[in-house]
Amino acid sequence: MTPVGRGRAPATGRPGWVTAGLGVALAGVVGPHRAIPNSPGRVGSLVESFLPWAGLVVALLFVVALVRRSGVGLVALLLPVAVWVQAFGGLLLPGSDAGTGTRELVVVQHNVSDENPDPAGTARALVAAGGDLVALEEVVVPALAVYEDVLGADYPHHVVHGTVGLWSKYPITEERLVDIRPRAFEAGWNRGLRAVVRTPYGDVAAYVAHLPSVRVGARGLASAPRDESARMLGNAVRGEEVGAVILMGDLNGTVDDRGLGPLTSQLNVAERGFAFSYPAGLPLARIDQVMARSATVGHIRTLPATGSDHLPVAARVTLDPLQGSGRFAP
Fold it and tell me: What single-letter DSSP state applies at residue 285?
């Protein structure tokens, strides 16, 4: 017979309420994250860069609540679960297979790295992905000839400006540099291009961009040049006359980061897939993006690692009916 007071009772009290409080606070971060101030140190953008990982924190809190048999904690954690599922649950759903006549393009996006030791192997891996368009960043002069040679057989049309390039299975009828250089950067920093691709479904304005890097330090997130460049790119897209637009690039930000607001406010982002692309050794965030106007980015996925510090991503883009050839009135 167990003496009175010696039996193991369910854990109650402060630990359960602490777990509950943390869960409610987490829901308050994931849900209304735009309300988080961005100063000092652009803390709002920093939090938004890793929002999907809040799901892992919720799972850990659930384990704590279960171990401590905290009914209060378990019930309270239903709130952050609901908020996370509403925000990110759709990304977990599988992408549907394309049907006949879907007006679909497959696009591949990759920062190939200016220190890539095997550009030929990287190019062969990108060809194997079977995309219609291939966008590359950090294409440096010593490796450019390699990419042109390996990609050329499958992608006879290409354009390069600065360190960004586009390879296409379909004819490119227009091309030009897009100026997204922050004011503080030196002349010759060219990381944006625009090309008009004549696809089987009509003309598509294809943009390739590599926005400035961000750094995390003692003062928070240093993203001012990236944000300035995103505004310039957003203005270029807003003035685009071709109805269908596909933007591909290393944008050095996630689609939840308010710093990319000038782009995400007017372009559709991927509906399915997390596709964390950076860093390649332990991907924590997707900063390699595919966005579109007058089109749906149905699914995005990562491809096997190459010689780059980024993983390539491939996305299915379905053009809206009658949008591929017309001009757009912004």
Answer: B
Tokens 């897939």: give the residue: 273
Q: Which residue is it, tokens 């997390």?
A: 274
Which single residue is written with the structure tokens 């807003």? 238
Q: Which of 237, 212, 238, 249 is nearest to 227 (CA)?
A: 212
To the nearest 10 degrees (0 to 180), the angle between helices 14-30 and 54-67 is 160
Count of C-beta atoms within a 10 Å radius of residue 198: 17
What is the CA angle 34-318-175, rounded to 5?
Answer: 90
Q: How far apart are alpha carbons 231 and 178 in whole angstroms?
A: 12
Write the pLDDT tens digit of every residue in 169-215: 999 999 999 999 999 999 999 999 999 999 999 999 999 999 999 98
Q: Token pair of 313, please?
A: 């991503």
Does the predicted model carry a pTM greater than 0.70?
Answer: yes
* DSSP 8-state secondary structure symbol assigned to residue 120: H
At residue 330, does pLDDT exceed 80?
no
Q: If DSSP codes are grouped into helix, strand and coil, which group holds residue 265? A: coil
- How many angstroms separate the CA atoms of 82 and 16, rounded? 19
- 303-307: long-range contacts (C-beta < 8 A, 24 or more apart)? 303/108, 303/110, 303/125, 303/126, 303/129, 304/125, 305/280, 306/110, 306/112, 306/116, 306/118, 306/121, 306/122, 306/125, 306/126, 306/280, 307/112, 307/113, 307/116, 307/117, 307/118, 307/119, 307/121, 307/122
Distance CA(11)–CA(293), nearest Å, equals: 53
Whole-number Å distance between alpha carbons of 120 and 197 = 25
pLDDT tens readout for residues 239-289: 999 999 999 999 999 999 999 999 999 999 999 999 999 999 999 999 999
Q: Give yes or no for residue 99 having a pLDDT over 70.
A: no
